[in-house]
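Collaboration report, partner site 2.

Our partner group contributed sequences for two proteins of shared interest, and the home lab folded both. The records are reproduced in the order in which they were received, starting with the first partner submission.
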Amino acid sequence: MVKLKLRDTAIALLALGSAQEAFAQSVAAPETVKYPRAFFDAFSPTTAFDIVRRVPGFTLDLGQDRRGFGSSGGNVLIDGKRPASKSGGLEEALARIPASTVERVELILSEASSEAQGQSVVVNLVLKPALKTSVWQVGASLDREGALSPSLEATVSRPLAGWLTSTRLVLGAGRDPNDGTRTVRDGSGGLIRSEVERRDSLQKWLNISSEARGALAGGELTVNSRLEGYTYEMNAGRDRFLARRPDGAPDQARFIDFNDKGVNGEFGLDWSRQMTPRWTLRALTLATWDDTETRTVSRLEAPVGAFSSGQRARSTSETIEWIGRSVASGQLGSGLKVEIGGELVFNRLDAGLDFADLTSQGQGVPINLPSANVRVEERRAEAFVSAGMGLGPRVSVEGLLSFETSRINVSGEASAAETLSDFKPAVSLSWRASDDFTVRLDLRREVGQLDFDGFAASAEIAADRTAAGNPQLRPDSVIRSSINLDYRKPEGPSTSFEAFHEWRSDILEQLVLPSGAVATVNAGDARVWGVRVSAASPLPGGFRLEGGGEWRDSQFRDPLTGGTRVVNTFTPLTYRVELRQDVPAWKLSWGLVANSEGTEREFFVGETSEFNWGVRHNLYIETTRWPGLKVRLTLSDFTQRRFQSERRFFEPNRAGRDSGREIRNWDRGPDISLRINGQF
């Protein structure tokens, strides 16, 4: 079915109209600010990732974990192209490039290509010809209990038989102990129980990725591969004190063991060629796979030492994805910059859940949840065309129109099939008001992707939550308008400001199915609005101040209560501020960082959850006193960051009475870590 509303049609016509008018106009070059490699020397970068994080007034967007290639990119290009890699993400692609191979950084304030995916500000890294260079990093962090977490990274770049090759190895282990308290009260505020919790986790990982670039068939071929394995173990113990504060021996004890392990990989081919002086062709194919298994066991002793009850859950997830994509870009006549392309995608998820109550002998009594074992397959095709033109020496307009159709099939313990089709138009207008100031207006329609996990049942034993699978889901969509103001002096202050408003449809939230089961459903429409700011400025005495943040608000009519509230998983405010001083005479730098991930709110059928991450304060000092080495010492959470979560419970659901709440408090840090970077 084609879901094209009147307002969406208006956007599509506007985008197409822009493309038609472009034939009579000259193409305006994107507004670009160029930073030479030497601009970043004060930060002693080791990789391209270090460089990108220091571009003034720029907020790095690593992209979204979405199916397909066109819809998952971030806001960084490498030699004008997005890295042809998904599972490792943009961060891994940048970390695989030694900083010495970067020739310059181009900050593009108006980019119409499909590579930019609607980003208002994009960074393009221009690399040098093939160089022989290698970098490494060893590190270790020491937590407040004296546990050591080591890590090792190494990247080797070598020209080989006319090909430039780069291989990166990452391995490490991390321990994360946490102590905290829980307080559970009834609806009138009476104390039901208090808990003292001890949680310890250990994660191990090994990752190897490689890339090779070389000439083939008159163009350039890039080959990417990646393999990763990891394990995560968490053990928690909670001493319970019934109707009293922790005092003396506990009345009960709860133990939770959580184990997660997985292996994933990727292989891709990316070929591009200058077909004519005006036209370039790019074609890529990419295959990824991911195999994970999660086991959770919970048991309650009441009194301590005597088994009372327990549960176990084992969930498995196997996913594969194949992508084929081709894009032709160039100019028609002297007046139109055009891109025409298409993408084919196949995805499959095999999900299974074994959920059971435990007896005192350790045997399981199965608990049946709808859609516990399902297979979800999606076949999707997308075609798009974009066009850009200049309306004068300082004004440019871009239009994009894409059409997407997909077929989703669900089989196993649930069955369903649906065909979805959507237009996704966009139009942008950019005005270079002066050499330092640019204004960009943007209007676009985007279509979300269904999380395949919503089709399958799930169990969160630690949180005492379960959900059935729902094979009748539809993707959400959003119409987004924004204005972006960018002011920057290449050697002075830089500021990027964006205000946006979104009209969201088919919001996905948890409700009750007609069968009585709790599951994710399409719950209604919402509005979201906010501002984003990113700024940097040099100060006297070698100081530099930079930071950024986002403030958001939203409005959604709750289908359970009938009232108005924010959308699910909502975080109203996040920010990061850094004050740094470079002392070249001493080859020394130091800095203070304040980082807040905000407070997140979630809404379930019978409860609400609010999680406050607190403010993280870090102090670091780094030196390049020893030739070829950079040493960085960091003291994290030196102000004793505090986490807090609050769960409020309702009977029979959020439209009913307040039946109680659970408040958890725990402190983090301080930690100390040492990182040494070098070359070989």
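Second partner submission, folded after the first:
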Amino acid sequence: MLISVITPSFNSSDFIERAIKSVMEQDYPHWEHIIIDGASNDGTLEVLNKYPHLSWISESDNGQADAMNKGFTRSKGEIVVYLNADDYFFAGAFSAIIAKFKEGVDFVVGNILIKSERMGVEFLNTPRITLEGMLRHWEPNSFCHNPVGYFYRREVQKSCPFNSNNYATMDLEFLLDAAALYSFSKVEYTLGCFMDGLKTKTHQTQTQHNYWQPATFPYLDRHIAHMPQNAREQYLAERRAGYAAKQAESNFRNRQEGIVLPQPSERASISVIIPAFNCQDYIGRAIDSVLKQHYSRLEILVVDDASPDDVGRLVQQRYGHDSRVKVLRHSENKKLGAARNTGLKNALGDYVFFLDADDWLAPGGLRALLALAEQYSADIAACGVQKAYSNGATELYHAFSFACRGGREALWYLADYYIGTIVWNKLYRRQFLTENKLLFIEDYYHEDVIFSMRATALCKNYISTDEIGINYFHNEKSITRSTPAALHLASYLRIWPDIDKFSDEFGLKGDEDGSSLTRELFHKHASFDMAPKLRRYLDATPKNNRLDHIQNASARVFPMHKEMAGDILECIFSQILKKENDFISLEKKFMEVEEKLNNALSKNAAIFSELTKIKSLATSLTKSRAINAISFISPRAQKNALEILKDLEILSYKFHD
């Protein structure tokens, strides 16, 4: 059997001779070595001329994949392998794989040694050989990371030619396509060495802040499409988590190597919108943090929402000399959503950043976001957030590194909480906001949830970094920590129909994948987020006030007579409260028993069976509490109650998770 070794090359004079010699030193004699050079000008051709056994050309090409395909057309071997110019084979590699081919296999994979200059380590890649395993390509040893580690019959490449339009990952695309058609065989032999240097294509592409995203690997879709629905959903969720982890790792290495984003262009302007209400103790810190960003093209729009502490006048006195700081006033209190809308309608910047009055920017945070948005043409660029306490302590709050496109792809990141519904850690391209008429809901307290959903769905490019750009102040007097009142309840209830309306608007219910996404958005940003807030409302509100609140809130949210809706919800809430103590008691008992049983699981299978029964009972009770509450509603009201429960999805989540 003749083995065709094909080497793409460009300006490889420093190392190509090592690759050539690694072929010549093989103990299997039947091979040819073809080199496709991309018109090198560094002395590579002088090296090639030293070895008359080589078959080579030197001419301009369209990249590595194009060179690989050219080499294949010139080759004659029954077996094909690619050897990059900076890599090399180990002794005995050809003999190790040829024995497998004589057994009649089509594709042989071995181990490879990876010498990574970037990571400063050497490690053995022991790749998987199934399509299912290679699809999890973000995991260690998921696939053969370099062509030096796999050989195949030439019929394989005829069926699966390298994609010359795929610059960065054409080898992974080829492997997946081949694995879908052919069986791979593994030889437990280290075939060669992959030199992962700082000047390689791998290094250049993977240092990008948007490398680990679905757009980099679009060909995965044709393989994922064949998965069953449940398996596909699980795979995609794990892929999102894997990509975020890999991007965070890559960004960390960038920082370690001193690779930083280019400075922003200084051509783009930024409008920072700060709603102000009872915040005179904090707003100076927020404004100063913006002015200290050392970026000249700024405007700061402070929106005085009829604040009783006259914060607008205070800002005017302190910053009136600075033309970048402007105060806009509401004649009456219109709440946070309306204040942000006022700022947005008056903003002139190319980009918009929403900053709450009690929070403050980290040094350089705004400049870094602008650099990120400009380099990656992002409609939305997000930074990491740390929570800051009045005693000076801090803790990580929300910080992820990843990139994605808009639409459903980005909405899944939102459902996973990689994208938070908070708007005050994001830089928005203003033209994107205005073209899509993106404004905040007014008169309610969940104004950022639907805004974030719409912006996420409509954006073309979203990019996030875990670099801390903003300090989120744990303010005991903030809206989120104030005593819940009637408007809070109405806001908590309205989130369900609002998300339902959003799902209809963006066509998320017309197919299986869209329906799954809708359920996740409901669960994570309505049921899961609102359940503790409803619980807090119930705990904080006396019963005689609660009924009036519920009736008024229901009248605002649901299109039915307020007494009917209010009575139904009050009945449900009352029964939930009534059963809560029973459940908490059982849950506590369950946790005590579980702790004891876990210690004995490895010794007694019968105990494991008992634990399973107890877990099943507790889970069943958790899920059935809301269902049981309906039994207390009169038959006349039951139909309406079920309709409301359907809207609220009370039946589909754990109320006290």
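Feedback sent to the partner group on the second submission included the following. Confidence is low (pLDDT under 50) at residues 619-657. Residues 562-598 form the longest helix (37 residues).
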